[in-house]
Every structure is written in structure tokens, then in C-alpha cells.
Amino acid sequence: MAGVTIRDIRAICTAPAGINLIVVKVETSEPGLYGLGCATFAYRHRLVAAMVDDYLKPLLLGRAVADISDIWETVNHNAYWRNGPINNNALSGLDMALWDIKGKLAGMPLYDLLGGRCRPAARVYRHANGATLAEVAAKVRQYMAEGVTHVRVQWGGYGGQASGMQQPDGVLPGAYYCPDQYMRRTIELLAAMREELGEEVELLHDVHERLAPIQALGLAKALESYRLFFLEDLLPPEQVPWFRTIRQQCATPLAMGELFNNPMEWDTLIRERLIDFIRVHISQIGGITPARKLATFCEASGVRTAWHGPGDVSPVGHAANVHLDLASPNFGIQEWSGLNDALREVFPGSPELCDGFVTVSERPGLGVDIDEKAAARFPCKDGVTTWTQTRWPDGTAFTP
Ligand SMILES: O=C(O)[C@@H](O)[C@@H](O)[C@H](O)[C@H](O)CO
Fold first, then answer.
1. Is 127 a catalytic residue?
2. Is 208 in the pocket of ligand 1 (CB under 6 A)?
3. Mean pLDDT for each 10-residue chunk of the chain (400 residues)?
4. Full set of structural domains in the chain with CATH
5. Is the C-beta atom of 310 inside 6 A of ligand 1?
6. Which residue owns the Cα nearest ligand 1 atom 5?
7. Could you tell me which residue ranges the Mandelate racemase/muconate lactonizing enzyme C-terminal domain spans (predicted)?
8. Which residue has its alpha carbon closest to ligand 1 atom 6?
9. Nearest CA owner, ligand 1 atom 2
């Protein structure tokens, strides 16, 4: 392994499910030996690709593939300013690809290289959204029939479907939602789901940072009696100090972190045991190398992992999530957004769901490949992102 070096690094952009994905391919001096990593930042794919092709490649050609830790530190410091999403995603693509190569050289699936399996498969939660309470309940039942034990319930999408909003003249266009209405409806939603579904299913809910801090506290308290598995992203990263107050006032389990990029964002939450689940987006924090350290840091504080697993993670990134899930003693649950046939065609060997558990292929490394010809049939889309232009009824811009 000592002699194997990096021969090429490049970004591959593809959108088989209509969502922009970025994968980094690292080719080595060993013919046919390469690794893949997820660098998906769906709304800025060109910038991440440029970071990979124009900055990481010239920096790293000829480096030994074995030296993942040193390469990670080198890239993290190379632009002087660090911990931003463009740099972190590019770094993640590279980092995962190097772990993939290390696994292939060792002849081991990544979970084995990370210390071995703590469980044969990772339990997932699915997402049930509906326009009516009956629709949400029907979706939950459908998942339960498929063997899924944990379901995240949402009524009218993130922030709810606002109705009867009173608005001043001249408000700007945007994705409007009404936090007070959303809060009332969410309490009604959880009451209705427990009434309808009983206690035999674990329920979760994603606030998606759509409330002011004092409302978030009120919601966490109001939902306590419905016994959530966890309440997700109750506040934006900028309001992390509020978790101290929330923790003192209620026992609703809390999951936080999909927007985090910088270790300082999670440090207090974990050290002071203010959350129960860490759910960072692994490519946003720089890949497997920092995620392993974060999982170990959480283990010491009794915090479990619930890595972010939405549609804007490539199957390569989902595989990285699941390998970590299998190898971490303090794994909690895995978000699973599902794959379509086009994703399976472009990414042979993708993780698969069976009876509420996701598994990875037993091939060495991450176990996922890419069919570049198929990927080219699904080009990424450019354009302005509109769903993140979120506003409160009076026109105030607020977090998406
Ligand atoms: O938990 C989730 O799945 C959501 O928060 C994501 O779908 C999130 O909205 C997207 O990843 C943003 O691109």
C-alpha cells in the first residue's frame, strides 16, 4: 500500500433522481484501483466541482493514498479559512474516496476497517408527509406494513401549509409559512397520530428550524406526552445556547445538527449533554474522518448518532452513513429517503432497505460503484433555489 499514489481526482455531477449530486473519483497509480466519495451540496454543485478539480487535484497528485489523516488536515488548512460548506464537501468527497481505496486495498468493507460490526444492519426512519391527518396516518400504516418501526410525521411539509395568512401590501415573493399556525397544527398532528396509531410505532418530527426560540421551547414541552423518538432541528445553529433552557424544562428527546459545518457548533451540545442524537450531514462536515471522531466524542456523553440521510446525499454518501452506523456502538437510527431505479442504475451496489433495516454491500471499501455513462444521462440543473426563500406572513425572511 505504501507505494500507491493519487493519479487523478475529479468531480462527477449527476442528478438521477432530479436532485444534484456530486461524487469525487480518486484514481490511483494501481491500474483499476479507485475510490468514490460524496461531495453533494445540491445548490452549489459547480463551486464544489471547481474546488475539487481546480484546487484539490493540483494539491494532491502524487500523494500516498494511505495517508488519509494527513491529507485531511492538509486540505482543511490549505485555503487558510476553513469549515465552510464548499470546502468541506470537496474534502468529504476526497476523504470518503480515500477510505474506499483503503478498504479495497485491505479487502474489507469499510465497517470492518472501522473496528467491525456492532449490528448486522442499521434501523431506519422514514418520512410520512400528508396534506391531511388521514393522509399522514395512511402513510405511516403503509411503512409499518413494510416493516418500518420509526416514522417521521409532517403535516403539510416543513413549516406546515399556511392558510388564511394576513399579509401587508408589498411583501416579497417567497415560500411563506406561519410559525404559530404550524406549532398549533403540529401538536394536533401528534395527538391525532397517537390516537390513531397507538403506541406501537415510534414517531419523530422535524421542526426544520421554523420557529422562534421561545416557540420551540413551548413545542418541545407540549409534545412531551406523545413520547417522540426525537424532535429534530428544533432551532437553527445560531440559537444553540437555547438548548440549555429547553433541556431544563422538558424530556422530549432532541436531535440536532444537519446544518452544522464547524466543530464549535456541536461542541457545547455534546459536552453538556444537551441533545440525545447528533445528525450532521457527513459531507458538510468533511467526510468519514471527522464523522468517526464526532461519533466517538458523542459516545462518551451518551449521545447517539442519526446521520442526515436526505435525497441530497448520493448513494455513496448513504453507504458511508451506514458503514459508520454498523461500526459505532452509539448508533441511534438512520434517516432513509429511499432510492429510485435511476439511482440504482448509476450507482450499482447502493445500500438497500429490507424490513426497516438498511444494509450495505459486502464488497471491500464503501461497496458502491458509479456507471459514468449512465450518470452522464442525468445532468445537474442550474438555477436559483426558491424553496429556501422562506418568509413569515408579514414578509420577514426566516430560516428554511
Ligand atoms: O431531514 C431531512 O431530511 C431534511 O431536513 C432535508 O430533506 C433537508 O431539507 C434537505 O437536505 C435540504 O437540502
1. no
2. yes
3. 90 98 98 98 98 98 98 98 98 99 98 98 98 98 98 96 90 95 97 96 98 98 98 97 97 98 97 98 98 98 98 98 98 98 98 97 97 98 96 96
4. 6-108 (3.30.390.10), 113-364 (3.20.20.120)
5. yes
6. 208
7. 133-253
8. 310
9. 310
CB 206 less than 6 A from any atom of ligand 1: yes
Chain segment 178-201, per-residue pLDDT in tens? 999 999 999 999 999 999 999 999
CA-nearest of 19, 28, 116, 38 to 316 is 38
Say how many Å lie between the first and final Cα of the chain, rounded.
45
Catalytic-role residue among 158, 176, 177, 226: 158
What cell numbers appear for 241 in the block? 445556547
For cell 460490526, the residue is 117
**What is the distance between the alpha carbons of residues 196 and 93, in angstroms, rounded to a whole number?**
43
Specify whether the backbone of 9 is left (phi greater than 0), alpha (psi in -120 to 50) or beta: beta
The ipTM estimated for the assembled molecules is: 0.99
Determine whether the shortest distance from the Cβ of 258 to ligand 1 is under 6 A: yes
Which helix (H) or strand (E) element contains residue 129?
A: strand 122-130
Q: Is 208 noted as a catalytic residue in this protein? A: yes
- 10 Å CB burial of residue 354 (0-12, 13-18, 19+) is exposed
